[in-house]
Amino acid sequence: MSSQTIKLILPVAVLLIFWFIPAPEGLSANAWHFMAIFFAVVVGLIVEPVPAALVGFTGVSLVAALGLIGNSKESITWALSGFSNSVIWLIFAAFMFALGYKKTGLGKRVSLVMIKYMGKSSLGLGYAVAFSDLVLSPFMPSNTARSAGTIYPVASNIPLIFDSTPEHEPRKLGAYISWVAIATTCVTSSMFLTALAPNLLAVDLINKGTGHMISWGAWASIMLPLMIPLFLLTPWLVYVVYPPTQKTSPEAPAWAAEELKKLGGITSKELLMAGLAVVALALWIFSKNFGIDSTTTAISIVSIMVLANVITWDDVISNKAAFNVLIWFASLVAMAAGLKKVGVLDWIGSSTEVYLSGMSPTMLILSMLFLFFVLHYFFASTTAHTTALMPIFLAIAVKLMTPEQLIPFSILLAGSLGVMGIITPYATGPSPIWYGAGYISQGRWWALGAIFGALYLAAIIIGALIFI
After folding, report:
1. Which family does it belong to (predicted)?
2. Domain residues of the chain, as ranges?
3. 3-state secondary structure 18-41
4. Fewest C-beta in 10 Å: which of 18, 265, 338, 352?
5. Which of 129, 232, 246, 119 is nearest to 180 (CA)?
């Protein structure tokens, strides 16, 4: 039996097993059958027998067809509810921002400028790679597009200048650059609400589960104080823990300068893209002051980008990645909302309250943050992790935490999604790209992941002690 066949069978087997198990006390048969489909979707997202978007879309279709949510009209209204969700369209619009960076060449220029002015030493190169990611991160919710699609094509050329390849002296420079790149993109993914698509998915789940909508500024007020020190520390810490044997790199700035010459002078479209990005960021940060919704800002900027020919309408409608994420996340948002609609989350909250109510508030919060982080070892997708665990953890938190504790806890829980991507070679989108470059062995990756994962988890725990 082929591995593809096994992957196809697994979600179906999970569905059938749970479907025919009697519903636990306190849950209706409809709610339990919904849970069976939800578990099957999560398994499908993990093993991916078909594209992840199709897994979610199939799950939503099956629930609607079986009428587990309600009558025919209620079912289709629920099934399509994710497509009217403003957060989903914010993610879609942010993919267009990423396309603008790529098409104008601004993303590549940013990386080359950083290397030109900061790359005289190996440590400086590490910071150049890190700051390139930082500059792009508020506007690119796909860390795969940011790190693997924009940073990697530039950074992967640097070790070759020094004859550092996976087969020949990988520790000379290639291994250091690779680990700095993946480690810093994990930090920036937690730093900003719009730096990782699952962050936005998590925020929508928080809104549905707790009734609180987390703004860009509220996220930044907690995550920036925690992530900025981590970001500044990471390239240096990699230099200490996993040092390159090449300490100086005078050739790198010269190479970057030559590449910038090939790009030519900065174009009007690059300047316009940079200006629109700054305007979007300002409106996201001060959305309450301006009274403009974040998604309204995003889709308005995208309209201007198309009208100004920064990108074309054909670019928009042919962007498979953006439409794939739109369908994927809209389906998952509907599935997560269904958990609450059929009463599963209330049942989980009530059931766990009995066992956890004896814990002190501080111990409960720290334990949940730790468990949420460590469970990512079992997930190859941050989106699957978010979909499977965020509603459950929020259901418990709503029952056992005060409103004052709930909001910062929710932000820290969602904020940990980015940094937990460091722990394994498959934990986040860009990991397979940097691991696949071949500079770091699998054993070394797991060891470094444990070290940096512990450091990043410690930052989240410290945040809980400070803000909650």
Report:
1. Belongs to the SLC13A/DASS transporter (TC 2.A.47) family. DIT1 subfamily.
2. 86-200+212-320
3. HHHCCCCCCCCHHHHHHHHHHHHH
4. 265
5. 129
Q: What is the DSSP letter of 248?
A: B
Q: Are 77 and 337 in contact (CB under 8 A)?
A: no
Cα-based distances in Å from 76 to 65, 73, 317:
9, 5, 25
Q: Report which secondary-structure segment, H or E, holds 10.
A: helix 3-20
Handedness of CA 253, 254, 258, 264 (dihedral sign): positive
Instruction: Say what the pLDDT of residue 243 is.
Output: 95
Q: Which residues of the chain have pLDDT under 50?
A: none
Handedness of CA 268, 128, 90, 63 (dihedral sign): positive
The tokens for 367 are 């334990």
Task: Quick: pLDDT tens for 169-203.
Answer: 999 999 999 999 999 999 999 999 999 999 999 99
- C-alpha–C-alpha distance, residues 355 and 68, integer Å: 30
Q: Two tokens at 213?
A: 């909508």
As a whole number of angstroms, the distance between CA 244 and CA 248 comes to 10
Under 8 Å between Cβ of 234 and 453 = no
Q: How many helices and strands in the chain, by DSSP H and E?
A: 25, 0
**Residue 333 confidence (pLDDT):** 85
3-state secondary structure 191-237: HCHHHCHHHHHHHHHHHHHHCCCCCHHHHHHHHHHHHHHHHHHHHHH
Q: Which two tokens stand for residue 249?
A: 């790199």
pLDDT at 135: 92
Please tell me the chain's helix, strand, coil percentages from 3-state DSSP, rounded to the nearest 5: 80, 0, 20
Label residues 35-45 b or e (16+ Cβ within 10 Å = b).
Answer: bbbbbbbbbbb
Distance, CA of 227 to CA of 224 (rounded, Å): 5
Token pair of 199 as six digits: 């962050």
- Enter the pTM of the model: 0.85
